[in-house]
Structure formats: C-alpha cells, structure tokens
C-alpha cells in the first residue's frame, strides 16, 4: 500500500515492484480533495465518533462490569447470561430494527446512532472482559474500603477504577480501532458526504463502472492508519501493566 501510494495509477497493477519506478506525490494531493470535500473533514468525523465511542464504552461497560462482579442483585446470573448471549447475536440481525428506531427519532445522518448506544453498555465483549478483571481483584480491598466508610459508588470510583486501568486501556484501544475501521455501520447511518467518516469516504474511490482511483485510495488509506498507530503507541504500556504494579503505584 505504501509503495502503490507513490505510483501512477497505470503502474500500480502493471508493475509489482515495491520500489516505484516513477515516484509521484500526485495521489496524495489529488486524493485529499478528490471527493470535493477535504479529507480533513472525514478525519475529524471519524475522530469525533471514535472519541465518543471510547468514552461511552469505558464509562458504561466499567459500571456494568462492576455491578456484575461486586454487587448482589436479583436475578444476577440470569442477567449475566442474557448479556453474554448478545455476543453470539450477529449485528446484521438487529441492524434493520435499529435503523427503523433511529429513523423514527430523526437520528439518521447524524453521529448519534454511532455514539449514544456506547453509553448504554451495548458491547458485551468489553463488559465480560472487565468483569473477569474486576473479579481477579482481591475482595479484601472492598472490605478495607467499606471499613473506611466507602459506599458502592466510592468503592467503584476510588478503588476499582484505578486498579482496572489495564483493562480500561484495552477497552479503549480496541473500541477506537474497531470504530475507526467500522465501515458497515457507518455506511448504514451516514448518507450525506459531509458526515462521512474515513472508511465510508475511502469506499467512494471505488466506482461501480470500473473507473477507480486506486492511487488516491492507497494514499488516503495509508493516512487512515496513522491515528490508529498513534493511539496504540500512546496506550500500549497500559496493556502490559499488571494489577500488582498498579497497586504499588496507588
């Protein structure tokens, strides 16, 4: 992809060499404005959706996971089983009812269908991940905090969240990566070009008539990888940070 982004369109498939025989930056200059809207617009759209999804998942999934891992309430095993069963439910089975719902409340062509559900803990995978992490924390920490007068909310905020940083970082990283590369959902709910995200905008380079701008597509696709790499490099340390290390830092 890197090599093809610097090749003229007529050499991308005719010359398989990794070193471009004809080096050009035209793919980047033309690709940036190829759709009539600067790609910076699509970049900020994707970034806004990803940040909203990350914040929503970290907050809501951690709260639900804390309830399942530490609190006692009626029918807890049943609700936990129902939550896990949603992991096996294909998204394509619920996209039509979701579309009808969001259209009825006027959310189509907005970022709300992509962000708001994240604040309702709809990603069961991350809930399960956080539940398993919180269950591994020593229950003696809860008892000590309760002796000091901490209630359930204070226990969650002051004890559980600081110790769960590695799991929260994992949730944030994978939410960002999956949301940034999510094409299907964003294509369903975003129809106006001004609201396109990076994946939907990249698809516009492929013409059903056979006239496709592959050079610009590769160039813009390469730029689309940069935020993912930066986000991962910023938070990769937290992925390997253990519970004991976090406890010592606390």
From TrEMBL:
It comes from the Bacteria. One of its GO terms (cellular component) is plasma membrane. One of its GO terms (biological process) is transmembrane transport. CDD domains: TM_PBP2 (cd06261). It is a multi-pass membrane protein. Keywords: Cell membrane, Membrane, Transmembrane, Transmembrane helix, Transport. InterPro entries: MetI-like, MetI-like_sf. Residues 43-235 form the ABC transmembrane type-1 domain. The keyword Repeat does not apply. It is found in: Cell membrane. The chain crosses the membrane at residues 42-66, 78-102, 114-134, 155-180, 214-235. Pfam families: BPD_transp_1. Belongs to the binding-protein-dependent transport system permease family. This is ABC transporter permease. It comes from Dictyobacter kobayashii.
